[in-house]
Design a protein that fits this description.
Helix 3 packs parallel to helix 4. The chain is 45% helix and 16% strand. Helix 8 links the parallel strand 7 and strand 8. The longest helix has 25 residues. The two termini are 29 Å apart. It is α/β, with parallel strands linked by helices. The chain has a single domain, classed as TIM Barrel (Alpha-Beta Barrel). It has an eight-stranded parallel β-sheet. The protein is globular and about 50 Å long.
């Protein structure tokens, strides 16, 4: 069976890059309907346009197990595992503290695998979680920070409508050696703050959106050695295909827009992204 995708793949990149954050396991009915391309097919299609490696992120215990399995069987894939900031309060509300402790134990066991190079995505999401459950998110974030430090793995942060508190928790707990702000959504002031601390910032298809001027300004001030790229697929599809399900095969559109914003050629941008991703997660 051929690869079934919603749009044609863009022209291949002149130099390979790595999708530093994707969700090959996610099947979102609102995006995909009743069908979803096979992960193997999506990886092959991505490689055909120069996206030759991916970081697969598992956001709950079941997805984390799946992520470890696919990374173990695909040399071009590594994994990150965690309880998503919205997953921790969901478990707490349904199963109480005991259920949350069991989930932590499962994530800690999975995170110890060699194919797992990151703890994440963790962090805070005040868009979907309100009231007292935010304290559960903050507890979960602290737990994941400690796990990343104990295992000496990169920490991948989800930060939605919570910039100040994310930074406050990071500072109070002490950040791990390698920190990635996944799908960076701050302004140029926040980008400079992160850069001063050596924290990596990863940009997705949002930078191609017409109304993303503040984000593009943030991208301009990120140092060459701290910038990453991702799809967050199947979400955040770059223009001109916004609204369609995303895949790593569409990442050349984001890379080319990044090069344009930063005033470098495509090859230079790709080389920086390639080197930086290996610096964060190790070579594979």
């Amino acid at each position: 069976m051929g690869v079934v995708v919603p749009v044609l793949a863009p022209e291949p990149l002149v130099s390979p890059v790595i999708d530093s954050h994707c969700h090959l396991d996610v099947r979102d009915r609102s995006l995909h309907g009743d069908t979803r391309p096979d992960p193997d097919q999506m990886l092959k299609l991505a490689a055909s346009v120069g996206v030759t490696k991916v970081v697969q992120i598992g956001c709950d215990v079941e997805a984390a197990r799946w992520s470890v399995e696919i990374a173990a069987s695909h040399p071009d894939v590594i994994a990150g595992v965690a309880l998503h900031p919205n997953e921790a309060p969901r478990i707490f509300a349904d199963q109480g503290q005991g259920g949350l402790e069991n989930a932590y134990a499962a994530i800690a066991e999975l995170a110890a695998h060699d194919v797992v190079r990151a703890v994440g995505e963790t962090g805070l999401d005040y868009y979907r979680t309100e009231g007292q459950l935010r304290s559960v998110q903050q507890e979960s974030f602290r737990w994941h920070i400690d796990l990343a430090k104990r295992l000496n793995k990169a920490l991948v942060i989800h930060d939605r409508d919570s910039h100040d508190d994310v930074i406050a928790v990071l500072e109070s707990e002490g950040a791990p050696a390698r920190v990635v702000f996944h799908c960076f959504s701050g302004d140029s002031k926040m980008a400079r703050y992160c850069a001063e601390r050596g924290w990596y910032m990863s940009f997705a298809g949002v930078i191609t959106f017409k109304n993303a001027d503040d984000l593009r300004e943030a991208l301009r001030v990120v140092p060459d050695d701290l910038v990453l790229v991702e799809t967050d697929s199947p979400y955040l599809t770059p223009m001109p295909f916004r609204g369609k399900p995303n895949g790593s095969y569409l990442m050349p559109l984001t890379v080319r827009r990044m090069a344009e914003v930063r005033g470098v050629d495509e090859a230079t941008m790709a080389k920086q992204l390639w080197d930086n991703t290996h610096r964060v997660f190790g070579v594979w």
